[in-house]
Amino acid sequence: MEQRTVLGVLGAVVAERDGDPLALKGPRHRAVLARLIVARRRVVPVARLVDDLWEVPPPGSVGAVQTFVGALRRALEPERPPRAPARLLVTEGPGYALRVPPDAVDAWRFESAVGDAVKLPAEEAIGRLEEALGWWRGPAYAEFAEEGWARSERSRLAELRLQAVERRAEAQLALGRAAEAVPDLDAHVAEHPWREDAWCLLGLALYRAGRQADALAVLRRARVALADRLGLDPGPALRRLEADILAQAEGLKYSARPAPEDEREARKRGSGGAAPGYGTGRGGGGEETHGQHPDDVAARIWTRATAAYDRVVGTGSPARLESAVGLMRNLAVTGGGGLEAAREQRMAVVAAAEESGDVELTARVIGAYDVPAIWTRGDDPELAGRLVAAAERTLAALPGEPAYDGARCRLLATIALETRGAHGSRGPEAAREAEEIARRLDDPALLAFALNGTFMQSFTRAGLAARRDGIGAELVALSARHGLTTFEILGRLIRVQSRCALADFPAADEHAAAADRLAERHERPLVGVFTDWYRALRLAASPAPEEAEAAYRAAAARLDGAGMPGLEHGLLALALLTLRALPDGADPDADWGPYRPWAEPLILLATGRRKEAAVALRAVPEPPRDLLYEALCCLEVGAALALGDRAALERGRARLLPAAGELAGAGSGLLTLGPVDHWLGRIEAALREPDTR
Question: Is residue 15 within a helix (H) or strand (E), and if so which, with residue range?
């Protein structure tokens, strides 16, 4: 009789053979096994395993992975003869795949059991779900909670487990076992207070058990929990349930998904399908929306659509990956938690696409995230590097036929965007090629995305505000003609920045107002972050800048929680420094973030440590090629003027000279250090003086 190997990830990663535990050696052996399980029988390239196992791969890391794989093979197939091919952990192409049967992994069995339970009668569904929930020994992939490669799968399994708990409660209610459902549901909502389905089920179970007062108390708890923890009002299902309990409605029922008979009945009525949620039996989920609040209608439509998507589109379908990217695009423009959530999940979706081995799918998934970017310092440099690497791999593997030019363009635009602020030629080259392809294909959306990459790579030197103004103007015109709202907003913000740099504040005011109008109409709250900072800059550049400091502090407060650390860190300290005399205005206690190297010589001068300031000035790096390039050059010049460092002054003159006639730093749309000509004049005067050192 053949022995059976079983793998477990619903808790710590374990392996058994006919009930006996297998020794998996060290944590990296278990990590390789877990990573292959996450891939769900697909090949994981060795290079990907190396990247996932080490932040900085050591010498010999490929050989180490091969050693881990060899040890795992011996553990999983101890009776395999020497030199016989492995059956479970196989070598294929550039990497390895775990080819165990679908029922050999507890997570896969769990997913199958939950799916089966939906189709079973209530009595059988309860037994199936209870058995499946019993397989959980702790959080999925428990020892790899911090690993990026496990994050998406851990979240998916955790969500599936919560759905299983709620479906079991539905089945108990369907069988008239309401009192039995209450204890587990009570614990469930205590641990997961954001789940409105669970609150509805608990309220309904209490009501069915004859505990109307307790049911209403639970719904009040739900209201408080949602408001306090998430800042949300109860959804329409909770509100209707509370109203019907107060009315002591008969036949009260609830389901987190529409039953097939409800859908058939709804189609007879012409409603297009039953809405998930509870009902009183007086019209089910297919009631008309006339007279309802638009928020309620939108919530119900969203619930219907997602439920239908879950039914129609298979869990492993590539369409889910592409849909996930679309959702992340929408999340990203909401700001705050939405932007952070999109950033966290983006690489997981790209990794899943790569693991599929479908290069066209991977290209679509990477290129579909065409979220406009205005700030030239990235929020997550490590993530940006991984995205660029994935895009380059996909670009190299993509067929060379013209049919793939659109995908190639999007990959190149992604590289241009994600290499923002970096030195080197790859970013500008990618931007140039992407724009050429987009113009040749005459695709407005593609051209808008490519122009965003061109903008991000338009900082190769100082003094390019006029060029960026042209990019912004084309984006505004193109987007207005073709309804590309987010890119029209981007174009407006680019023109705010460029007109500021060119000291054309009336035009910048018009573009800021237009951006605000578009943002309000299309619910783009992040736009206000940039226009608030612009208005603080306007005060700073006015003849009476006394109110600028308060405006900058208010704008900085709005950045808190906006989900843009690349913009937020150090910006307030830098902005306040522009309002003060150099070097005395440098605050040694401020949070300078990434701008500390340019502030350090000024801070040391302000505290009387001249020799240390001279050393710090010599250590100042070349500023990143971004929106604050000229501003940081001016800070270096300010320290050089105070110290009489002629080499630094000459370096500053060479860097700033192309920006003659512009306002230093104003191209950021956030702050300014005044006319570049003023700084050039001070440099020339200092260099004419004799060197007394």
Answer: strand 14-17
3-state SS assignment for residue 162: helix
Q: pLDDT per residue over 226-259, tens digit each?
A: 776 566 667 778 888 888 887 776 556 555 444 4
User: Which residue has 């775990």 as its token pair?
Assistant: 98
Question: For residue 187, what pLDDT is reported?
Answer: 87
HEC-encoded secondary structure of 39-86? CCCCCEEHHHHHHHHCCCCCCCHHHHHHHHHHHHHHHHCCCCCCCCCC
φ/ψ of residue 678, rounded to 5: -60, -45
What tokens were used for 389?
A: 């690497």
Q: How far is the CA of 449 from the CAs of 230, 519, 530, in angstroms?
A: 34, 19, 20
Please state, in angstroms and as integers, the Cα–Cα distance from residue 386 to each residue in 36, 39, 261, 462, following that order: 20, 18, 48, 29
Average pLDDT, the chain: 84
> CA-CA distance, 499 to 465, in Å (whole number)?
8
What's residue 286's pLDDT? 39
pLDDT over 80 (residue 270): no
* Residue range(s) occupied by CATH 1.10.10.10 in the chain: 1-147
Coil/strand/helix, residue 600: helix
**Residue listed under structure tokens 């297998």:** 22
Smallest Cα–Cα separation from 503: which of 656, 659, 675?
A: 675
Domain covering 176-285+295-312 in this structure, CATH number? 1.25.40.10
Fold of 1-147: Arc Repressor Mutant, subunit A (1.10.10)
Q: Which CATH superfamily is domain 339-559 in?
A: Tetratricopeptide repeat domain (1.25.40.10)
Q: Rounded distance, CA 557 to CA 416, Å?
A: 30
**What is the rounded CA–CA span in Å between residue 597 and residue 124?**
67
For residue 40, give the nearest of 138, 135, 116, 108 by alpha carbon: 108
Q: What's this model's pTM, rounded to 2 decimal places?
A: 0.59
**Residues forming CATH 1.25.40.10 domain(s) in the chain:** 176-285+295-312, 339-559
- The SS3 of residue 4 is coil
Closest CA to 87 of 27, 2, 22: 2
**Cβ neighbours for 145, distance < 8 A, ≥ 6 positions apart:** 139, 154
Euclidean distance between the first and the last CA atom of the chain, given in angstroms as a whole number: 90
Residues 6+ apart with CB under 8 A from 183: none
Q: What is the CA radius of gyration of the chain?
A: 30
